[in-house]
Amino acid sequence: MATRDEQSNNFLNSDALNDEFFVELVESKLNLTRDQFKVRLVLISPATGKNENFLSVVYRAKINVEIFASNERKFVDVIIKAMLSNLPEIKEWSVFPREIFIYKNIIKSFENIWKERANEEIVFGPKCLKVATEPYEVVVLDDLKAEGFQMLNRKLGVDVDQAKLVLSKLAKFHAASCIRYQKDGEISKQLDRKATLQLFTKDSPFYEGYFKMIREFRSVISEIKGFEKIHKVVSTWDPEVMINSFFEATKPFKNGFKILNHGDDWLNNIMFKINDKGITEDVKLLDYQISYWGSCAGDLFYFLISSVKDECKTKYFDEFIEYYHSELVNSLKKLNYDQHIPTLNELWDDLLEKRQFASSILIDIMFICKYDSDQEITMEQFTDPNAFTPEMFNRMYRNDNYLKALKSWLPFLYERGYLNPVAFEENGEREE
């Protein structure tokens, strides 16, 4: 199995990044024809560090361009994102085609909805400049860093004000999706998780590895003094239910209300614009590879559990939910949404109903956020049960960052009843 570094080197040395590739980028970015400029230099560097991105590799390219008419030099800053994994499951999940579809057919339409209905300029993410499928799947985006945006430390998380900015942007995204849904329904089968993914069964390549993850997760809890009651509840979790818990979030509210989830809103997929006074002014969302229709509980649990500072996450949890609900209601009203808007109580009920999804986040995405080792971790390892050695589990679940977050979340979720198990029928629906 090739390492991520080997895959990256193969990509960088391939014909995918030839002269024509960069000329077309400049034409798109500067709205010039190729006889009006010359590419003088291209500098490519990693945009993220090791273990910061799991489904693709991301590079930052600075293109030095000479403009003939004015005899001036300009820089074109872009992000090059390439899918390098050869896992059949990744191909089956259509993560790359889905992201391209979102950039080409969704984001701009949502921004137009805000402009046309509320006269507000809302920007949800970077502009997509170019797409390629051969010899690699590649998407090229505006580099938000050149616009003053930055990524924050995933291991630390965001503060209260930053979390609210993210929740506000999510609420606006969700509200726009409701308007688009009234016109076009679910828009594409790619956004229907149940139509594009099958339930993981015991013969799935991921199942044995996930079973080992749950077993080790339970072991970690058993080692924490005072968590005996929590361990007892967690020990009742069915691994087959847990590995499929992401289907929970695809269910709409009981009254039928549903939104388009970003789906992967952890901290590495969000960029922040912070001014000279240290005040965060705006956020933009990245990586729409697993977006899906369903309950907003999906995005809420995913972001709040994985990406908020430990000292804020449980203390302000209720305030975060109330704030999101207020932003969602205000956004839907601004956009003249004429259907039922969920009440705050309905949102709380829905969060409780989707509780197993919250529990699963502790096992997977939260450990990724808190991972604190230089040892490489890849998607391929999750299909190889032999990769889960005691040393790897210690890096995943026993590092100080993860344990601190876990000790904060578990008592809170236990008291709320969010750790209580649920069961599913074979079609992925909840058994009542």
From TrEMBL:
Pfam families from the UniProt entry: EcKL
Gene3D superfamilies: 3.90.1200.10
SUPFAM superfamilies from the UniProt entry: Protein kinase-like (PK-like) (SSF56112)
Domain of life per record: Eukaryota
InterPro entries per record: CHK_kinase-like, EcKL, Kinase-like_dom_sf
Domain CHK kinase-like, first and last residues per copy: 139-334
Name of protein: CHK kinase-like domain-containing protein
Source organism of the structure: Polypedilum vanderplanki (Sleeping chironomid midge)
